[in-house]
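Researcher: Batch entry, complex prediction.
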Amino acid sequence: MTWSWIASNAGLIRQLTLANAFLGIMPALLGLAVSVPLGIACVRWGWLYPPVLSAASAVYALPSLALFVVLIPYTGLSDTTVIIPLTLFSLCVLVPSVVDGLRGVPEPVRQAATAMGLRPLRRLVTVELPLAAPVIFGGLRVAAVSSISLASVGQLIGVSSLGYLFIDGLQRSFPTEIYVGIGGVILLAVLCDASLVLARGLLTPWQRQRQRRRRPGAVVGAPVGDAITRTGHSA
Amino acid sequence: MRQQWRGPASIPVRIIEHLGYSGLSLLIAGLIALPLGVALGHSGRGAFFVVNLANAWRAIPTLGLLVLMVILLGFSPLAWLIPLVALAVPPILINAYEGVAGVERELKDVARGMGMRPWQQLIRVEIPVALPLILLGLRTAATFVVSTATIAAEIGLGGLGRYIIDGLSVSDYGQVAGGAALVVLLAMAVQLLFAGLRRLIVSAGLRKQAS
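Model: Structure tokens for the complex:
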């Protein structure tokens, strides 16, 4: 470990960290923007869910590097080339979490909202989505952390991220650089995860008063049957 | 044209190399993770460990681990085995754990009521019931390993990633796209293999229930 290298390259490290954060967070947010309407549609029209789920898990099985490469002729060596595949991967986690979250809203709550005179759209926005929020946040955390980690692979097609430190460190046989890269990715993922936990706490204050509920199963993998929490994607 | 099909850089050789790296890594990961996951799930202990493993696993950049191992260990097989095994262990372990830990109380009581000894309960009831999840874990791990073996070409390994990495370095996008297509086909073949395996070895009653 050559500590002086870190100090003298602080500017570069900061710049790469910011680039990596952008490449990791954008897919999670875009994925959320797609999953919420898609998830609502899947709950409303139940027949839609199985094909959507199969499509999402089929995409999820594809290697990220292969998808980056396939997009190069269309979007060039730009951030978009990395963001589109990572967004597609995030759908595999986010759509099921939106659907599970909405389906988990207790029927009496829904009936009470209807009895209070809320129309379907209003009920969805003011009652059902807020109650589904904790589950959706669970999916968002998984999506964000894995996108941040995966964004570093974008370096192989020349899109700048902390992955630069891996490739450069390899070429120069300089372990410090690689330690910094790995540490940076993990730190970024932990920070992002922590801010999502914080945001969830602020957005769903009623959760704090409740007793801790049983943790949902931590099933890892593409959706099969009623697997609950899903994982991020690998390279 | 001919060199695509014959010689050391031909497509069949690259596919076999790719499957070799993936298969060996998956085998070692399975030997480590399956007994551990089943044991933890059976005892009901270690939930905290398993959840944290799942979280940590998502954050670790495999590419970084790969290049680090090359620098520390040189170009020995361990340099790619360690990252690929590390990638494959968590999904196998977590799903085996969840599968066995999630077997219903009533089912275990019935097994005991039928006079099964504890290890018979495990082998004849808990593991078969957990099999769909155990297979899901293996399938996930296999998919990840096959995908990630692609980036192993970055550290000078063979396999299908060679076409992508080499093609990129000389801007030959035809070769790159061909390599990408082959990796995608291989990943889909792996999915199909596990779908078939599921059909073969999961009990019919369970399959009906799950899908």
